[in-house]
Amino acid sequence: MSEFQLDPKFAIADEQSLRSLFEATHALAIQKFQSALGEHAQAFIRRSPFLCLGTQSPDGRADVSPRGDPPGFVQILDARTLAIPDRPGNNRLDSLSNIIANPSVALLFIIPGFDDTLRVNGRASLTTDPAILESMRVNNRVPTLAIIVRVGEVFMHCAKAFRRSHLWDPNHFQDRTEMPSLIKIILEETSVAPADDEMRKIDDGLEEDYKRTLY
């Protein structure tokens, strides 16, 4: 596949050109921005078992990381402060390193079955405060650290994206077996995947690792 080149005739390079393509923002879209977590935003967060965490490195490299746990895993310390447990992962530490270098973060909270989402922008820091970590204990294990987010902006996203994607509609669910396993994808993209029998053993090992190191 040849490399795509953007035709400069159609490139949008300034905000005036961008806004000329769209109607003006309606009042409700402007009004929805809040500087603290109101009653409904807090209720949404307590229901949510999943969020996406957006961070950025000092040189502008963007990153987004999924975070999931039982509903309510993100603690509301006060109306402008959240605490997110950092559960075991691949130890690349991309998000955590980015936060140390650039504390600006964005969170997108998702609730299964809800087409609306909640977005929170703020500034993050990392803590190993034993009292906070102990309150995040699951399966008798505490996280190594927690991400503390000082809230700057809060707003709800409408349902259009989720309705267009049919994300929660079982009639649109796809068969995972139609694509290779995670490890096979990585191996095929970076080196060479082993034969099928050996690949099955590796995949089985990953499933065992999930059970052993989920927390």
How are the SSEs ordered, and which strands pair?
Elements: H1 15-19, H2 27-31, H3 39-47, E1 50-56, E2 62-68, E3 75-78, E4 81-85, H4 94-101, E5 104-110, E6 117-127, H5 130-134, E7 146-157, H6 160-165, H7 182-190, H8 196-213
Antiparallel strand pairs: 1-2, 1-5, 3-4, 4-7, 5-6, 6-7
Can you describe what's shown?
This protein has 215 residues and is of the alpha+beta class. The protein has two domains: 143 residues, Roll (Pnp Oxidase, Chain A); 40 residues, no CATH class. 30% of the residues lie in helices and 25% in strands. The protein has eight helices and seven strands. A hairpin with a 6-residue loop joins β5 and β6. The longest helix has 18 residues. The radius of gyration is 21 Å and the shape is globular.
Oligomeric nature of the chains: single chain
Global Rg: 21 Å
Q: Domain count, please report it.
A: 2
| Annotated CATH architecture of the largest domain | Roll
Q: Which CATH class of the largest domain is shown?
A: Mainly Beta
Mean pLDDT: 94
Backbone shape: globular
Q: How many angstroms does the end-to-end distance come to?
A: 41 Å
Strand neighbour order, sheet with most strands: 2-1-5-6-7-4-3
Question: How many DSSP E strands?
Answer: 7
Strand portion:
15-25%
Biggest β-sheet strands, sense, barrel = 7 strands, antiparallel
Low-confidence blocks of residues: none
Q: What is the ordering of alpha helices and beta strands?
A: HHHEEEEHEEHEHHH
InterPro entries: Pyridox_Oxase_FMN-dep, Pyridox_Oxase_N, Split_barrel_FMN-bd
Protein name: Pyridoxamine 5'-phosphate oxidase family protein
Domain Pyridoxamine 5'-phosphate oxidase N-terminal: 38-139
Organism: Devosia oryziradicis
